[in-house]
Write a structure and sequence with these properties.
It catalyses: a ribonucleoside 5'-phosphate + H2O = a ribonucleoside + phosphate. By secondary structure, this protein is α/β, with parallel strands linked by helices. The chain is 25% helix and 26% strand. The chain has one domain: Survival protein SurE-like phosphatase/nucleotidase (Stationary-phase Survival Protein Sure Homolog, Chain: A). The termini are far apart.
Length: 254
């Protein structure tokens, strides 16, 4: 299907004013896609697939136009943005969902906490293929690198089975300095950079450790350090075809 016939919902978890989504949406529109941008009003990082207070209440929105694209913010999470778009709250339901550009990498098993990745998984659960794109960069000149990768990923995923999801991490480099593109395994949970800490006032808090010096080979953590774009197909909640647990419980209750 030609790009101009495909509607792409662009969302994120950093908020509709975030620089990542402001760089991404015009780049995707320039490729000819029918772009609709719906994202949280405020930063909703780490909310996972939450859609709290969704049913039976009006949802506040704000919008503005930049570079020819209308950006709509909702009082809610990325997963809620996807759900609203898929039920037609912003016109025709999207054919694809693009989540990002997230400010910070989403690597390892803990990505299920990410609102950016969860938006893509929410789309898949509703029958729509999706791509989540992240870059850990403070250099505005590197946002176009991630936007270019995102556009190419959309061109691939459109021909894949409905509900296909990719999470992609982009090194903090210009496009011409990338080492290439590699499939990456998720770094195991024991390699998570999330650590517990205590605030000066005594309250518990969470911090992120800096990247490790010896990441496990072929994981997203390791390949990013080598300058590769990492691509990891992922799936959301799925049934395990095994009745052992139910059979055991039935026996215990007999």
């Amino acid at each position: 299907m030609p790009a101009e016939q495909l509607r792409v919902l662009i969302t994120n978890d950093d908020g509709y004013l975030a620089p990542g989504i402001r760089a991404l949406a015009p780049a995707i529109a320039e490729l000819g896609y029918d772009v609709v941008v719906v994202a949280p009003l405020l930063d909703e990082s780490g909310v996972g697939s939450a859609r709290a207070r969704m049913v039976g209440r009006p949802i506040r929105t704000e919008s503005d136009v930049e570079n020819g694209v209308t950006f709509t913010g909702i009082e809610g999470t990325p997963a809620l943005a996807v759900t609203l778009a898929n039920v037609g709250a912003f016109g025709r339901a999207p054919d694809l969902v693009l989540s990002g550009i997230n400010r910070g990498h989403n690597i390892g098993v803990p990505i299920f906490h990410s609102g950016t990745v969860a938006a893509a998984l929410t789309a898949a659960g509703q029958g729509t293929s999706a791509v989540a794109v992240s870059i850990d960069s403070e250099d505005p000149g590197h946002w176009p690198t991630a936007a270019t990768i995102a556009g190419e990923a959309l061109g691939w995923i459109v021909d894949e089975p409905a509900g296909t999801v990719l999470t992609i991490n982009v090194p903090d480099r210009p496009l011409d300095q990338l080492s290439g593109v590699r499939h990456a395994s998720l770094a195991p949970i024991k390699r998570s950079r999330v650590i517990g800490a205590t605030a000066p006032t005594g309250e518990p808090m969470i911090e992120l450790e800096p990247p490790r010096a010896n990441p496990i080979p072929d994981t997203d953590e390791a390949l990013l350090a080598e300058g590769f774009v990492t691509v990891t197909p992922i799936v959301g909640i799925g049934e395990v075809k095994d009745d052992a647990a139910a059979t055991a419980l039935a026996k215990r209750l007999a």
